[in-house]
Design goal:
Blueprint lengths: L9 E5 L4 H13 L4 E4 L7 H6 L8 E4 L2 E4 L1 H11 L12 H26 L5 H22 L12 H6 L6 H8 L3 H4 L1 H10 L3 H4 L5 H15 L4
Parallel strand pairs: 1-2
Antiparallel strand pairs: 1-3, 3-4
Helix pairs in contact: 1-3, 4-5, 4-7
Amino acid sequence: MANNSNNNEVILLDFWASPYGMRAKIALAEKGVTYQRIEQDLQNKSELLLSMNPVYKCIPVLIHNNKPVCESLFVVQYIDEVWNQNNTFLLPSESYLRAQALFWADFIDKKVYESGKRIILNKKGAAEQESAKKEFLEQLTLLEKMLGDETYFGGDVFGYVDISLIPLYNWFYTIQKSAKFNIQDSCPKIIKWAERCIQRESVSKSLTDENKIYEYLCDLKIRLGIHE
């Protein structure tokens, strides 16, 4: 794989189950960048992680020639701008379309992912669970409308918004099990879009098995004292 045109030591600090880390892996794969991945123990954070991301102390962190880039959406944007040797871009070049892509990626981060977290880490009972589920489906419905009948959120081009959302797909199983519902019943276009995305090698090789994610979440709930 590989082309580190802008030379090059590239390291990704990552955690196997993190959808945020999966974003970075997909973007690196799309650009054909060779990199070293260093798994992080989030219960016992490494000195490297703490030194490279002293503000948030979280993954992913992309380290390019000893310089860190933090927060997954910024990491993807950085990868897109730095490794452009094939003149292929994840973000649109046209200003309005670029602004729209950034907007929807931010929406996915602040709304969709957060609603998903509220569902799977619910401590407040059935009413809170139902509220989080309702919001989650409303947000996916908005994304369905934005997607329309296109192949990807960028039309025929797989890009920034797709990379922002697709890592959550392998968390859908866990989200559905947690709140006892079926996403496909309400948002079939999102499921079909996801199925198209995972046909891409960059996506299929970057996502973690949904059953392993569910097992991880069950263990995490026990550690956090969350009971069904």
